Amino acid sequence: MARISIRNLLLLRMTLNRSFIAFISINLIILANCSCNNLSEKEIVYRQSFESGKALYNERCANCHKQNGEGLGALYPPVRNSDYLNAHWKQLPCIIYRGLKGPMNVNGVNFDWEMPGNKTMDEIQMSALLTYMQDRWRGLNTVVSYEEARKDINECEDSGVRNQKSGVRR
Ligand code: HEC
After folding, report:
1. Rounded-to-integer distance, Cα 93 and Cα 134, Å
2. What residue ranges line ligand 1, CB within 6 angstroms?
3. Residue among 166, 119, 126 at smallest CA distance from 145
4. Which residue from 99, 90, 101, 100 is spatially nearest to 152, judged by alpha carbons?
5. Distance between CA atoms of 95 and 115, rounded to whole angstroms?
6. pLDDT tens-digit profile of 70-91?
7. How many CA atoms lie within 13 A of 136 on its CB side?
8. At what angle do helices 41-60 and 123-138 cross, to 10 degrees?
9. Would you say 39 and 124 are in contact if contact means Cβ atoms under 8 Å apart?
10. In the chain, what is the straight-line distance between the N-terminal and C-terminal CA atoms, in Å?
11. pLDDT tens digits, residue range 33-51?
12. CATH numbers and ranges of domains, the chain
């Protein structure tokens, strides 16, 4: 091996195309960062989605609902053990996307404030946020795909604001 010359190395490099090198380096970075040598590809994808979802939740939701999801007294309702959310998981993408307004009751407490929407959220962010929230507060550990998230967003865009309210607050 001591005999590998610079010329040979250059030749070797030239035979590897750039995208292959990029592919290898990305995988090395992932392996180095998550000590996930024993994880399947599926688990790695799951962890990545969970971690980005966690960052998004902490950035956009935790101010009000708190990092552990317990909410803040009579101002902000909980998302952890919330009877409302537990009955309306299907509407969560629309709640995130469009926000909420008007009186509602969560775990016996009345709330009548306003939650801002996140209309610039794309399907990649939405899928990560849903994956994270479902894991923490619904006990699911499946990735919400980009396709599902895109469909959810499109459906929220299609229904009118009033419809959303009556749709959400059954
Ligand atoms: C500025 C504060 C604020 C932020 C930020 C916020 N919310 Fe809310 N959220 C509220 C309020 C206030 C309500 C109750 C709205 C009402 O009274 O109609 C609410 C209601 C909800 C509900 C339904 C009630 C329940 O707790 O089960 C869910 C679910 C929810 N928010 C999730 C989220 C998620 C996910 C994010 C981040 C993308 C988020 N919220 C960001 C203030 C906030």
Report:
1. 12
2. 60-61, 63-65, 76-79, 82, 84-85, 92, 95-96, 100-102, 104, 106, 111-116, 118
3. 126
4. 90
5. 9
6. 999 999 999 999 999 999 999 9
7. 23
8. 90
9. no
10. 72
11. 655 568 899 999 999 999 9
12. 41-168 (1.10.760.10)
Cα separation, 133 vs 105, whole angstroms? 20
CA distance 19 to 59: 33
The tokens of 119 are what? Answer: 């209309």
CB atoms within 10 A of CB 88: 16
Whether the full predicted model's pTM is greater than 0.90, yes or no, is no
Q: Whose CA is nearest to atom 41 of ligand 1?
A: 61
pLDDT at 161: 46
Tokens for 131, please give them: 């994956």
Report residues of the chain scoring pLDDT below 70: 1-37, 159-170
Measured CA to CA, the distance from residue 7 to residue 1 in angstroms comes to: 14
Q: What DSSP element (H or E) covers 110?
A: strand 109-111
**In Å, what is the CA distance from 135 to each residue of 14, 27, 47, 51?**
45, 25, 11, 11
By alpha-carbon position, which residue is closest to atom 40 of ligand 1?
Answer: 61
Q: Which two tokens stand for residue 65?
A: 């609902």
